[in-house]
Design a protein that fits this description.
With 207 residues, the protein is mostly beta strands. Helix content is 0%, strand content 57%. It is built from no helices and 23 strands. It has strands spanning 2-4, 7-10, 16-20, 24-27, 30-33, 39-43, 56-58, 61-63, 65-69, 74-77, 83-87, 92-96, 101-114, 120-123, 126-137, 142-144, 147-158, 164-167, 171-178, 185-188, 193-194, 199-200, 204-206. The strands form three sheets. Strands 2, 3, 5, 6, 10, 11, 13, 15, 17, 19, 21 and 22 form a twelve-stranded parallel β-sheet that branches. A nine-stranded parallel β-sheet has the order 1-4-9-12-14-16-18-20-23, with no helix packed on it. β7 (56-58) and β8 form a beta hairpin. The chain is globular and about 40 Å long. It starts with a strand and ends with a strand. Mean pLDDT is 83; it is low at 46-59.
Length: 207
């Protein structure tokens, strides 16, 4: 189990703040990602043999690696092509928990970026986007019951095909929510949900 309690700052290009070889890792501090093509946290590094990790249970599913941005913690992304949390392989779980903050201020930066088929990716905290994208999900699905504040920017981009975006009680999204290509579905799972007026390219709505 790994935990960051301090401050990690990435200023150079192609930097990595945390490369989660631990099966369970959490951020209880601050991660500043200023460098071009840099990643605050990488979960499921493609060259790591995840067979060495025993599956752990999270949100009712079993995963080989989990990462959480915990309450009171911050990940701030300002670098070009930079990512706050990058998930690369399957059987991982990444979460911005209630009280956790992800800030994005880079035209091509992503707060959460999923390229592998993640078992679970979600936001229950706050993602603030001045410029860039709050969450870019290239594979798999995304769950949100938190706040994504991205006026005039990209809140959530489902950048693959045939994906599901589930919005739970407490969801408050301001900015573009885009299903992109494929047959994508929004699931409204109850309670108070505010998606604003910029949800596009979703072929199905389930309530």
């Amino acid at each position: 189990i790994g935990i960051n309690y301090g401050v990690i700052t990435l200023n150079g290009a192609n930097r990595e703040g945390i490369d989660t070889y631990d099966p369970i890792y959490s951020n209880n501090g601050i991660i500043n990602v200023n460098g071009t093509d840099s990643n605050g946290t990488i979960v499921g590094e493609s060259n790591v043999s995840t067979a060495i990790f025993a599956p752990i249970t999270s949100t009712g599913m079993s995963f080989l690696q989990t990462f959480t941005n915990d309450a009171g913690s911050q990940i701030i992304v300002t670098g070009s092509n930079a990512n706050g949390i990058m998930s690369k392989t399957a059987n991982t779980s990444i979460s911005n928990l209630t009280g956790g903050i992800i800030g994005v201020n880079g035209a091509t930066a992503d707060g959460i970026h999923v390229t592998g088929v993640t078992g679970y990716a979600g936001n229950s905290g706050t993602i603030n986007v001045v410029s860039g994208t709050g969450a870019r999900i290239e594979n798999g699905n995304f769950y949100n019951n938190g706040t994504v504040s991205a006026t005039g920017q990209n809140a959530i981009i489902m950048d693959g095909s045939n994906q599901v975006l589930e919005l739970g009680n407490g969801t408050n999204i301001d900015g573009l929510t885009d299903g992109a290509a494929g047959e994508d579905t929004i699931v409204l799972s109850g309670g108070t949900i505010n998606v604003g007026t910029e949800a596009v390219n979703f072929e199905k709505i389930v309530t």
